[in-house]
């Protein structure tokens, strides 16, 4: 058995993922996986993410095991705590919005076992984007620094069918 022959498209210059790659040979994409990939790619491409945010987010969408996603709860809570401490010196940091975004992420990582491989990649990207201070805009240096984080997490919640989590941000 050789390695599968793979043909496909990488993200475009605008940051939109191309169509699902075709994989020939043993272990290839099933039609279900191709459909899921296309649906998730479309959901992210159609989200209200500017191209630079979409590219940064897609770069962070790496494979992560369920146990590792669940362990990310500590990173989410730690970053929220750090934002709260920073807000003591800078009242422009929107801790309420950060708390709402963190709550959505915590709900998603708590349900990580319900998501397939591609959905977990989106979730991993959203977690990493949130805990990254220097993402689309600096979370603590700009008045609206958490707006991009909220857009990314909102797009992922919608792509994962958990739109009820986006209330409040």
| Uncertain stretches of 5 or more adjacent residues | 1-27
Q: What is the N-to-C succession of helices and strands?
A: EEHHHHHH
**Can you count the beta strands?**
2
Strand order of the largest sheet: 1-2
Number of helices: 6
Q: What general form does the structure show?
A: globular
- The overall pLDDT average reads 78
Class by helix and strand content? mainly alpha
Tell me the domain tally. 2
- Cα radius of gyration in angstroms: 17 Å
Task: Report, as a whole number of angstroms, the end-to-end distance.
Answer: 50 Å
Q: Into which percentage range does the β-strand content fall?
A: under 5%
Quick one: biggest sheet? 2 strands, antiparallel
Helix % is 55-70%
List keywords for this structure.
169 residues; mainly alpha; 6 helices; 55% helix; disordered N terminus
Summarize the SSE layout with pairings.
Layout: E1 5-7, E2 22-24, H1 31-45, H2 51-60, H3 66-89, H4 95-110, H5 117-131, H6 147-159
Antiparallel strand pairs: 1-2
Helix pairs in contact: 1-6, 2-5, 3-4, 3-5, 4-5, 4-6, 5-6
């Amino acid at each position: 058995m050789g390695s599968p022959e793979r043909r496909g498209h990488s993200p475009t210059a605008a940051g939109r993922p191309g169509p699902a790659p075709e994989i020939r040979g043993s272990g290839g994409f099933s039609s279900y996986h191709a459909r899921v990939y296309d649906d998730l790619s479309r959901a992210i491409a159609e989200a209200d993410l500017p191209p630079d945010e979409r590219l940064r987010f897609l770069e962070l969408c790496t494979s992560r095991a369920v146990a590792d996603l669940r362990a990310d709860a500590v990173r989410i809570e730690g970053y929220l705590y750090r934002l709260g401490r920073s807000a003591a010196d800078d009242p422009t940091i929107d801790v309420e919005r950060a708390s709402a975004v963190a709550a959505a992420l915590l709900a998603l990582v708590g349900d990580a076992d319900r998501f397939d491989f591609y959905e977990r990649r989106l979730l991993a990207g959203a977690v990493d984007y949130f805990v990254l201070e220097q993402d689309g805009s600096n979370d603590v240096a700009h008045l609206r620094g958490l707006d991009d984080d909220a857009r990314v997490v909102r797009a992922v919640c919608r792509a994962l069918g958990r739109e009820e989590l986006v209330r409040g941000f």
